[in-house]
Amino acid sequence: MRYLDRSAFARLLSALVESGYDLIGPTVRDGAIVLDGIDGVDDLPRGVREVQDRGTYRLERTGDERLFDWAHGPDSGKRFLFRPSEVVGRTRRVDREVVVEPPGDEQRPLAFVGLRSCDLHAISVQDRVFRFGEPAYRARREASVFISFRTGDPTYRVRRESALFIGVNCAVPGATCFCASMGTGPRCTTGFDLALTEIAAGFVVDVATVRGEGVLARVGTREPTADELEQAERVTRDAAEHMGRELDTSDMPALLYRNRHHPRWKEVAARCLACGNCTLACPTCFCHDLVDGVSVSGGETSRTREWASCFSEEYSWAAGVVVRQSRDARYRQWLTHKFASWIDQFGTSGCVGCGRCITWCPVGIDVTEEVAAIRATDGEVEVVAS
Fold first, then answer.
1. Angle at alpha carbon of residue 180, lines to 179 and 182, rounded to 5°
2. Which residues neighbour 153 within 8 Å (Cβ) at sequence distance 6 or greater?
């Protein structure tokens, strides 16, 4: 552990820029705390706090010097590592031959500043899809059959492995946060090079990697005092006790599998707009489409990967039909994949308890409430297959 005063933290960000990193950090824009390119400490949300609940988000000014007394806005690291739209391949016709051109990524390495533990866990979840092509497990009645998927995405891998991550331990969880229930926070435990805990006069820093140690060595640090360590411990202890939501994850995925015809799915679908806000705000959702383009001359083609949502009808189109035609079928697919079949596929839940899907749902649908409602009537209601 090391201690950084506020001026040393400003020097740390400057040292990252001098080392060739582009800084990605929280900043206030359009009434929200968003992740974007920043130049230094002056761009951070000083003296700002969020007020959020289901379908509700606003900022309040606190008037103090604290930089990280908030939970998170609509953004996560996903937008920068798995981009909303990205060319993944091109071809050119040269004479009578077709030349395949791999996509290029000329950007400088990224240094993420201020990601919370839930978002660091979300990146590790997406790593299983795009970085490693993690082996998956498909459950069968008689046994679990090992199926190896070792593909991954080379562009994501390069972008991810060149990045540096400075996490921040949460002090003020949002009203929709339930990371403590998911085991993903509020304290950073994985996926970071440095993790900061903001206390009254500065930051207690947990150093996790050689890369982080090297960056920290470029600024003035010292050993934290016993009182500073106690302040830092108290921050995350208090945060864990003040989670806005909680979720009982026992007996999942079996709970959702045996309730796939539960009437609650139709009840929530009656409110759902199928707008896809939850999947866009979610830091782990990775549904995407591939769109092919051809130049007017026919001499060049491109293939673009674009974010998609399982809430759209056309996303489940297969063999000439829409597989999940009803809104309740699409909501069931999303929630069951998130909390159940994701575990079978990747060995982890697809939810990190950030609560963004609750905050940014226009009609305030709450996943913790939906799972609790199914659990409360598990085995007690008569269900009819639709």
1. 65
2. 130, 131
Strands 202-207 and 2-5: antiparallel
Given a cut of 70, whether residue 385 has pLDDT beyond it is no
- Distance CA(74)–CA(55), nearest Å, equals 12
Phi/psi for 344 (5° steps) reads -65, -40
Tens digits of residue pLDDT in 170-206: 999 999 999 999 999 999 999 999 999 999 889 999 9
Note the pTM of the prediction, 2 decimals: 0.90
Alpha-carbon distance 127 to 20, whole Å?
24
Q: List, as one string, the DSSP characters of 260-327.
A: TT-THHHHHHTT-----HHHHH-SS---EEEEEEE-TTSSEEEEEEEE--TTSGGGGEETTEES--SH
The contacts of residue 268 (CB under 8 Å, 6+ apart) are: 328, 331, 365, 370
Please compute the mean of the pLDDT values over residues 208-219 and round it to a whole number.
94
For residue range 125-139, what is the model confidence (pLDDT) as tens digits?
999 889 876 554 444
